[in-house]
Design a protein that fits this description.
65 helices; seven-stranded parallel β-sheet; single chain; 2005 residues
């Protein structure tokens, strides 16, 4: 926000400075100064600022609005688009460098391109340069005049900052909004400069926030601080006179030197010249200070000398041309050529990709020391880099050599995956920065199973090129979604060096993408760390580099408590009790072996105890653990001992590093058993419930550290940049989804092109509703399709080429719309519209006509035709295989092949779930924060919805219909198509193909075009693509700017998160990481600086990965693993074998003789299984006694067996894997057999050596049978074990290829996973060729554990054995036993019907299915259920006599007769005389249900139950079902019944349709009885530009486009929504109709479809009377199509009369269709529409008036609303309309009257009070009915009822006042009046007159009985005496005293009641809240001055005017 505010204030001043600073001559200023003063240099080819109607609205100042953004350019600035050239300001090379090699090679982010704005929120807007004062004189300052530091960064700020750690200093300065302004000063105070240098130096000391440091140093490099302030400060040192100040200079010079060293290390190429002046001044000042007696420390002297030497070295390299660009990698001054690897680019270079350069490689030295740390680091850096570069390099070289080969796309490449027709679509926002959605061709990848494929995994590196890898882009896979991959889409994150080059990429650019299979992210972090490690910082050099065999004790043992450890935590309970001398109660010196407890006390074997002692007493400990020897157990003992004696390590965190997430979870679970807190886990999602709580992401979310809100301050800039980026991204995305409307392309067209295109308005064929571009491209429905010029068949011979993508089938999509005339034109041999050449004469220049090539068009001599001179025929060209590389995805081959085929469903429901290998690999690569969550999905949904909405506004034709994707049907017309449904798909493909062609007109060719309508169709598309490319280039440039802003914000936020993570890790006891997490968090680990590091599975980790986890603070390294099992995996076999890259640090240190302990006792395998490993793999491996106790495997004759076979394997095309169907079926059958032996599924694991076999197995494993069985690949089962292992070795082939089954490490893992039983199947005849397998085979044969068949042994019949050699053999043992029957007698007595089964021997789970033989009762009835089901009671029915009634009934056998209910009818008589209707066994009813006639209170008679008739006679009410005879006010009969209408007092609403014509001309669809609500039909208002999408009842947004009514005589200058300011043109239309006759219409109007000659009789039919007059002209109404004579229609449209007062649209005189869209009568139509909009607005009510009315109600009716909470809640929503507010106000008035009546009823006599309250409650119930408004009928009924109640209460009050003393005549009046008031039926006017007369007579007879204390006559006289008052002027005070307010009736002053002194009146027309209306005086329902009165008057007026329609 700050940045925008600064922009607004400084914009004019900055522009003025730019104008003043711009050089007037050719030279004088340095290039850097010119760049700073002028901003970006102008580029060629950039169009001028878009003209009106362009695509891009202005950038929003605040949050982005719904409209799309627009780019503003400074005057005179241009941007190069479409050329693909990018100028990089790297300061390092010349322009010629790019010609010699790739211009993208080695390029980092250009300096200055990501300069922070003053707000610190990202890049400056396009076209603006940062303020920079290169010359202080220009800024009005003397060079020696110190400027004050800007606000935000001052002395106090820097002093406080220096108290914080280095990481926080770096992040704070990088995020500071004032740093740039500080660095831009031309002079500084010395003290402030010293503080700033000190802060910058401290920030550079951080090893974690390298991105922030690079950003800081980049700002320093380009600042006046480096160019002017520092040199001036150093020079001023020579003249300093104060001795105390001089003696402080050495420290400050040291800070400056440290800053310079960091600067030249990060930017070696561009900073050499920047620091030259400073470095030249430093020696002079140092010598002067030394001469004045200032002593310089030795380290400062060395730093100065080293900096000078390093700068000299860089200058020499720059002169040689070898230092061209900044590497972006931290460098350090090196000695004698060492450390050259630090300058190498991690990414492949141009020369490497093309094979012109190969780096020097040295093998990993595995048997002797390295010569130096530098050589060690150099070796591993180069080997590791080569491991991922070589497959990419060789794959690209192989691809380059194959470009001309046929079948290129189907070719298989080694070590890489190749994708064709790759297109970069749109940028996407992610948590880590800007990603890009990329589309690729799916057709060569139809066989890929993406769920399991290793393609495009997270973190994989891809290289993209569009020019045979002369230039290329690097990116990594950032998101992998198998659903999106099926569609050919993936998200990539481009490398920092490649991002600026994306600006030159067009949507039509087709790339080739090569994917490396290596996990690049891990490589990148490790390689960067290797470049950062200083030789002196490498820990354990004496062992790792020098290979010293004598290992010292950890250094921390010499500090603090020393080597005294308390080992009681390790001792078992029995061991502690048996320890001699009370050892369990004291500590021991761990360096003294004699003081250690015995192995029995510790619960360890001898080798485990030795390993524990080695780990705790040596600073580098190596523990080898063969399978099952307890490596993890020993590791946990080590951690427990270290944690219990943590004081020795000064409470530094202990780092645990594991190779896999599963191993990490297991290790941390073990730690959790003895330490519940203090653990932090860094990795992907944990599968362990107890470990999940320690995930770093979870701890960060819970905010368990101070300052947890820090990262939130970085989220706002990120959100703002995201909004801008997504807005532009939606524009770009939509430009690829259809045809842009011409109004959005106008800013990118040449003026004459726009004018030429717009000339079509004057042509007779144009439909004004359609887009011009659609008509121009032949996609409309008008006859332009007949006029569009197609190339002739002879065009090829004339040198012009025909695009094969269109051919002659374009017009086949328009049947009946000119196709025949087009074919006739082709047959006639004409060219173009008039037989002219197609393009040549249209070009103004005399240059030869350009050859307009379509994508895939083949011309004569095209090299892709193999050198032939003949071109293929143009009719149906078939692209050659070589051409397929260049053709887009969407139009290759026939239509059936162009559509994406659905992949076969390999995963069927009900199969066992097996984790996909791709998911397993990705899980190891992802950290928790990388995984997309719900927020990412919601963001994607919002983006899609916004893009769909934007498409409706941008596109004239959409290729992808979002509504149809969501299942919403859409008509062809709404979708922009008016073709047959069968042709629509074909047209879409053709349009999509044209949009994806890369070829477009050049700028020169486009300039030569004069009339765009005379171009042939192919040239039109090329011109459209030219406009589209300029449009997209503009957006892409903005996307690049916004993307850099977002990327910067994301990186700053990531830095803040790292800072938070650092705090969490620093407070932990245990930090657990995977190797991937350790590489990603390498910078944090350097800050955490753990002293103790334990690496589990260390033998599986590459040495470079292990080294990068170490920091200089590490004092204790423990490596646990087994190098004889799995080794590290390398991508390049040559590097693994010949350069020893696969040798881990663990294995190398063992090989060079460092001491290590091998665990010799295995606790896992039974002895016969262990014999396979010893001595073939391990020379010594003893069995622990526990493994001798295992039971034999049930059902087989041996616990170990190898089944031989020779069935061949099958090779899978994708994935380079194998499968063996025979082995899969056999293993599955054996697994099922073992499950039948009563083994649990969790005890069995199926292992296989290939992933192809894994999913072959899955198809055979139904989950219902095998749920719980584990299925894994051997490599993913390292460290696991199970009771029974079934191993499928897969390989079996005639070529004797064993694959990696010859690797001893994998053999070791595969054969060592089983505890009790191991069963293998494979081709031992082939495997025996491998020496190790041969030795294992001899061992197996010696023991009889190998053969062609496995011998099964029945548990139940031990003598019965079966041999099985294939899966079908298991059918002979279907239940796991043998083929003999079970013969076991069940508990029920039946025999078990199954075959012999070893499971469930007691048959406890078996359910006998035979009929139950048991008898249920003495009668001998048998149980009808199955044997296994429990028997119930006997339910057989038998005849029994019931004792109570004597009836004979069929009663269930087991039921007592007393409980049975007799089913005979009851014959008893009820008191009413009717018979009982119940059953005999039931109690007689008390309420007779016999229907009898009854006369109700209303007088109607109806049938009711007998019991109800008695109640009716007693006066109880009964709803009457007779039809209500009343006639409603609308004239329709009442639809209710007499009872529902309360005998006509309150009628039901009318249900007839209203059918009234609304103001909008639609019919009202609501029921008749209610007021017409706002119309809910779709709005029909539309113009030539757009249509309103709202419902009709809402006000329309007026169109702001220019009015299109124009002709050659007049033109309207108003906006489209405003009445036209031109007269109708009366000149005849000069056009001719298709029949050839003159048009009968008027100039500028659409031509009538009827001809005055051809259809004269029809046209001259008399309607207005002027039709037959000479010269009559005709007008066709566009809304309905009727044609009328113009003069008569003019009179009709302008005519007045009674109808002119009504607000309505004029209608067609013939069909009554409203006239909305006629241009001639546009003024009348627009005036009517404006009046209608005013009516809509008034009906809805102004929001301010509604709010004021609600506030008034809340104030005036506060007391009443307090008693009516539901009614009060209806006033809370802000979106109330005037109608709903009026409803509430009417209800409040009625409720007020009801309250008054209730108060009056409370004063009645008790005998009358209840009846009155019941009637009041009934009225309240009517008020509570739900309604939207009161209909006139409801108001009439309520008013009548309230009048009845008022009269009734008045009458009852008179009776009470009379007190029984009334004379007989008065008593008779009371009786007759009460009878009228309480009778059923409505209170009619006659009843009212009668009752009023009787009440007047009563008041005369009882003078003072009225409630007012006066007679009614006196009341009328008082009301009449107050002249000039209407109703609503009478009020009463809180105590009921009456008073009046004159004039308008609104209270304007306050006073006091003369009777009670209460406040009366009010002010500002507002009544006192305690006062209320007195309706008893004049019968008013509301005050005279109120909103209710005003609304009623307004609504009455509106209703009167509307009814005039």
């Amino acid at each position: 926000m700050a940045g925008r505010g600064w922009k607004g204030r400084e914009e004019p001043r900055r522009q003025q400075q730019q104008q003043q600073q711009r050089p007037r001559g050719g030279g004088g200023a340095r290039s850097s100064d010119r760049a700073c003063q002028q901003g970006p240099a102008p580029a060629r080819g950039r169009p001028d600022r878009p003209r009106g109607g362009g695509l891009l609205p202005p950038e929003p100042r605040g949050r982005p609005a719904a409209s799309v953004p627009r780019l503003h350019l400074q005057p005179g600035q241009k941007r190069q688009v479409g050329s693909g050239r990018v100028v990089l300001q790297d300061g390092g090379g010349s322009a010629e460098d790019g010609a010699k090699r790739s211009p993208w090679e080695g390029r980092s982010r250009p300096a200055g391109k990501r300069t922070l704005g003053p707000g610190g929120h990202g890049a400056l807007p396009s076209g603006q340069t940062p303020r920079c004062r290169s010359h202080p004189e220009e800024a009005g300052h003397s060079p020696h005049h110190a400027q004050h530091p800007p606000r935000g960064i001052g002395f106090k700020f820097l002093e406080d900052l220096l108290q914080k750690d280095a990481s926080e200093v770096a992040i704070t300065l990088a995020c500071s909004t004032g740093l740039k302004e500080v660095l831009s000063q031309t002079a500084m105070r010395p003290h402030f400069l010293q503080l700033l240098c000190q802060a910058l130096r401290k920030a550079c000391c951080s090893r974690m926030d390298r991105q922030s440091i690079q950003q800081l140093l980049g700002a320093v490099k380009e600042s006046n601080f480096l160019r002017m302030c520092l040199p001036q400060y150093v020079v001023d040192m020579q003249t300093e006179a104060t001795p105390a100040v001089r003696h402080q200079y050495p420290e400050h010079i040291g800070n400056i030197l440290a800053l310079v060293q960091e600067l030249v290390s990060v930017f070696p190429a561009s900073s050499v010249q920047k620091v030259a002046m400073l470095m030249s001044a430093l020696p002079t000042s140092v010598n002067a200070l030394r001469a004045s007696g200032v002593a310089f420390p030795e380290e400062v002297e060395k730093s100065l000398a080293g900096a000078q030497a390093f700068l000299q070295h860089l200058q020499e390299k720059k002169r040689e041309g070898t230092l061209r660009v900044d590497s972006g990698t931290l460098l350090a001054p090196s000695r004698g050529g060492e450390g050259e690897y630090r300058t190498l680019s991690i990414f492949p270079t141009y020369k490497e990709v093309h094979g012109d350069e190969k780096l020097l490689l040295r093998p990993n030295i595995v048997s002797q020391p390295y010569e130096s740390p530098a050589a060690y680091l150099d070796t591993h850096f180069r080997l590791l880099r080569e491991d991922f570069v070589r497959p990419l390099r060789e794959g690209i070289l192989q691809l380059l050599q194959s470009f001309e080969d046929t079948g290129l796309r189907k070719r298989r490449f080694d070590n890489v995956h190749v994708y064709f027709d790759v297109r970069i679509l749109v940028p996407l926002c992610s948590a880590t920065g800007v990603d890009y959605q990329v589309q690729f061709d799916l057709r060569p990848l139809k066989s890929v199973r993406w769920e399991n494929s290793k393609r495009l995994l997270y973190g994989s590196l891809v290289c993209m090129s569009r020019d045979h890898f002369e230039t290329f882009l690097f990116a990594t896979v950032s998101q992998r979604d198998s659903q999106e991959l099926r569609k050919g889409s993936v998200c990539l994150s481009f490398a920092e060096r490649s991002r600026p080059l994306l600006a030159g990429v067009q949507a039509s650019d087709s790339f080739v993408m090569v994917e490396s299979t290596a996990y690049f992210e891990a490589y990148r972090h490790v390689l960067q760390r290797l470049q950062e490690i200083q030789e002196d910082d490498l820990p354990f050099q004496r062992y790792i580099v020098q290979c010293e065999p004598h290992v010292r004790a950890p250094a921390y043992l010499a500090q603090g408590p020393g080597s005294t450890y308390d080992l009681r935590c390790l001792m078992t309970a029995a061991g502690a009790e048996s320890s001699p001398g009370g050892l369990a109660g004291r500590s021991v010196d761990i360096l003294d072996p004699r003081q250690w407890p015995s192995r029995e006390a510790l619960g360890l074997d001898e080798s485990q105890l030795q390993a524990l002692q080695l780990a705790l007493t040596k600073e580098l400990a190596i523990i080898q653990g063969p399978p099952g020897t307890g490596k993890t157990c020993v590791g946990l003992k080590i951690v427990e001992a270290l944690m219990s004696n943590r004081a020795a390590q000064e409470k530094c965190p202990t780092l645990i590093v594991c190779y896999t997430n599963h191993a990490l979870d297991q290790f941390l679970e073990g730690i959790y058993s003895f330490r519940k807190k203090g653990t932090v886990r860094v990795g992907s999602r944990s599968s362990s419930e107890c470990v999940k709580q320690f995930n770093l992401q979870e701890l960060r979310r819970r905010g368990l550290v101070a300052g947890r809100r820090g990262p939130q301050r970085g989220q706002q800039p990120m959100r703002e940049a995201q909004q801008q980026l997504e807005a532009c991204s939606a524009l770009l995305e939509n430009s690829q989804r259809g045809i842009l409307h011409e109004r959005h392309l106008r800013g990118f067209m040449a003026p004459r092109h726009w004018d030429s295109l717009r000339q079509a308005w004057n042509r007779e064929w144009l439909d004004p509703k359609r887009s011009l571009v659609l008509e121009w491209l032949g996609l409309g429905v008008s006859p332009v399709a007949r006029g569009a010029v197609e190339p002739e068949e002879g065009a090829h011979a004339a040198g012009q080429e025909l695009s094969p993508c269109w051919g002659a089938c374009v017009w086949s999509g328009f049947p009946g719309r000119g196709g025949s005339s087009w074919r006739g034109r082709r047959d006639s041999g004409q060219s173009g519209a008039a037989g002219r050449p197609l393009l040549g004469p249209l070009l103004a220049s005399k240059a030869p006509a350009p050859v307009l090539r379509g994508c895939g068009s083949l011309g004569k001599g095209d090299p892709r035709l193999g050198g032939r001179d003949e071109a293929p025929p143009p009719a149906r060209p078939q692209p050659s295989p070589a051409l397929c590389l260049h053709l887009p995805v969407f139009f290759l081959g026939p239509a059936g092949q162009e559509e994406e085929e659905e992949e076969e469903e390999e995963e069927q429901a009900g199969l066992l779930h097996i984790a996909e290998e791709a998911d397993l690999i990705q899980a190891e690569r992802l950290l928790y924060s990388d995984e997309p969550g719900a927020a990412s999905a919601r963001r994607k949904d919002r983006r899609r919805a916004a893009a769909a909405e934007l498409a409706d506004r941008l596109l004239a034709m959409k290729l992808e219909d979002h509504q149809q994707q969501q299942g919403v049907p859409q008509s062809a017309e709404e979708a922009g198509w008016e073709v047959q449904q069968g042709q629509k798909k074909k047209m879409k493909r053709k349009v999509k193909a044209e949009l994806h062609k890369p070829h477009a007109l050049t700028e020169a060719e486009a300039e030569a075009v004069r009339d765009v309508w005379q171009l042939d169709l192919s040239a039109r598309w090329q011109l459209y693509r030219h406009w589209l490319q300029k449009y997209q280039a503009e957006i892409r440039h903005r996307l690049l700017n916004h993307g850099e802003s977002y990327q910067s914000a994301a990186e700053r936020l990531a830095g803040l998160h790292l800072q938070q993570d650092l705090r969490i890790l620093q407070t932990a006891w245990i930090v657990g990481m995977t190797t991937t997490g350790a590489a990603r968090y390498r910078q944090v680990l350097q800050e955490v600086a753990p002293r103790v590091i334990i690496v589990e599975e260390a033998a599986e980790v590459l040495e470079a990965h292990t080294i990068t986890t170490l920091s200089s603070a590490c004092q204790h390294l423990i490596l646990i693993g087994d190098h004889q099992q799995l080794r590290p995996s390398a991508n390049v076999y040559d590097l693994a074998k010949n350069f020893h890259l696969e040798v881990s640090l663990f294995e190398r240190l063992v090989n060079v003789g460092l001491p290590f302990v091998r665990l010799n006792f295995q606790h896992r395998m039974r002895p016969e299984i262990a014999q396979l490993l010893t001595p073939h793999i391990y020379q010594e491996l003893e069995n622990h006694p526990s493994v001798l106790q295992y039971e034999n495997i049930k059902g087989v004759s041996a616990n170990l067996f190898f089944v031989e076979h020779s069935f061949p394997e099958e090779q899978l095309q994708e994935g380079r894997s194998h499968q063996n169907q025979h082995e899969a079926r056999f293993v599955v059958a054996l697994c099922k057999y073992l499950l039948c032996q009563d083994y649990r599924p969790s005890q069995i694991t199926i292992l296989t050596t290939y992933t192809g076999q894994l999913f072959c197995l899955r198809k055979l494993l139904p989950a219902q049978t095998f749920q719980g069985v584990k299925v894994h690949v051997v490599d993913k089962y390292q460290g696991e074990e199970n009771d029974i292992i079934l191993l499928s070795l897969v390989r079996s082939n005639l070529e004797q290829r064993v694959g990696f089954l010859q690797i001893s490490n994998r053999i070791c893992v595969a054969l060592s996973r089983a505890k009790q039983g191991l069963f293998c199947i494979g081709n031992m005849g082939m495997l025996g060729k491998v020496p190790l397998w041969s030795r294992i085979s001899h061992t197996l044969r010696a023991q009889g554990h190998i053969g062609c068949s496995l011998l099964l042994s029945c548990q139940n019949h031990p003598g019965t054995q079966k041999e099985v050699a294939r899966a079908a053999d298991f059918d002979r043992v279907p239940e796991g036993g043998c083929s003999r029957p079970c013969d076991s007698r069940l508990d029920c007595g039946h025999v078990c019907p199954r075959a012999c089964h070893p499971y469930d021997p007691q048959h406890k789970a078996f359910q006998c299915l035979k009929p139950c033989p048991k008898e249920l009762c003495p009668e001998g009835h048998r149980c009808p259920r199955l044997c296994w089901e429990p028997c119930g009671k006997c339910l057989v029915r038998v005849p029994k006599a019931l004792p109570r009634c004597g009836h004979q009934q069929q009663v269930p056998c087991s039921m007592p007769v007393e409980e049975f209910c007799c089913q005979e009818p009851c014959g008893s008589a009820l008191p009413c005389g009717h018979r009982c209707g119940q059953l005999c066994g039931q109690e007689c009813t008390r309420r007779c249900s016999e229907m009898v006639p009854a006369t109700l209170q209303c007088g109607h008679s109806q049938l009711v139950p007998c019991s109800v008739a008695a109640e009716v006679r007693d006066g109880q009410p009964e709803p009457c079902r007779a039809q209500c005879p009343g006639l409603l006010e609308c004239g329709h009969p009442c639809p209710g019944s007499c009872g529902s209408c309360a005998s006509g007092r309150f009628h039901q609403p009318c249900r007839q349709p209203c059918q009234r014509l609304l103001v909008c001309a639609h019919l009202c669809r609501q029921p008749c009885g209610r007021e017409c609500p706002p119309c809910q039909e779709p709005c029909q208002n539309r113009c030539l530009h757009s249509r309103c999408r709202k419902v009709c009842g809402l006000p329309c947004v007026p169109c702001r486009e220019p009015c299109e009514w124009r002709c050659q005589h007049y033109q309207c200058s108003q906006l489209c929504a405003e009445p036209c300011d031109r007269p109708p043109c009366e000149q005849p239309c000069p056009k001719r109709l298709p029949c050839g006759h003159p048009c009968a219409g008027l100039c500028g109007e659409p031509c009538p479809r009827k001809c005055l000659v051809c259809h004269r009789e029809e046209l001259t039919q008399i309607f207005f009377g002027f039709e037959e007059e000479p010269g009559a002209r005709f007008v066709q109404l566009e809304d309905c199509g009727h044609i009328f004579e113009a003069q008569g229609l003019d009179c009709y449209m302008e005519g007045g009369g009674e109808e002119s007062e009504a607000i309505k649209l004029k209608v067609c005189p013939s069909c009554q269709t409203p006239i909305r869209r006629n241009l001639r009568y546009g003024a009348q139509v627009k005036r009517s529409l404006a009046q209608i909009e005013e009516v809509k607005t008034r009906l809805l009510g102004a929001p301010a008036e509604i709010a004021a009315g609600i506030q008034r109600l809340l104030e005036e009716k506060a007391a009443l609303l307090g008693r009516l909470p539901p009614l009060r809640r209806t006033l809370e929503p802000p979106a109330l309309s005037a109608g709903s507010r009026g409803l509430v106000e009417t209800l409040l008035n009625f409720y007020g009257r009801l309250a008054d009546l209730a108060e009056a009823a409370s004063q009645l006599a008790p005998s009358e009070r209840e009846g009155a309250k019941k009637r009041l409650a009934e009225a309240a119930g009517w008020l509570e009915r739900p309604r939207l408004s009161f209909s006139p009928q409801e108001l009439s009924d309520l008013q009548g009822e309230f009048q009845r109640l008022t009269c009734l209460l008045h009458l009852l009050a008179l009776r009470k006042a009379a007190g029984g003393q009334a004379d007989p005549s008065a008593a008779e009046l009371l009786r007759t009046a009460q009878q009228v008031l309480e009778q059923p039926g409505p209170f009619t006017r006659e009843d009212k007159r009668q009752v009023q007369g009787q009440l007047e007579a009563l008041e005369a007879a009882l003078p003072k009985a009225a409630g007012l204390g006066i007679s009614d006559k006196e009341r009328l006289q008082i009301v009449a005496a107050v002249k000039g008052t209407s109703r609503g002027h009478w009020f009463k005070c809180p105590n009921g005293h009456i008073y009046a307010i004159g004039e308008c009736g609104g209270a304007m002053q306050r006073s006091r009641c003369p009777d009670c002194q209460e406040a009366i009146g009010g002010s500002n027309h507002r009544l006192e809240p305690s006062n209320r209306l007195a309706p008893e005086m004049d019968g008013a329902t509301h005050a005279a001055w109120s909103e209710g009165a005003n609304n009623r008057l307004n609504q009455a007026d509106l209703r009167r005017r509307l009814l005039l329609q």
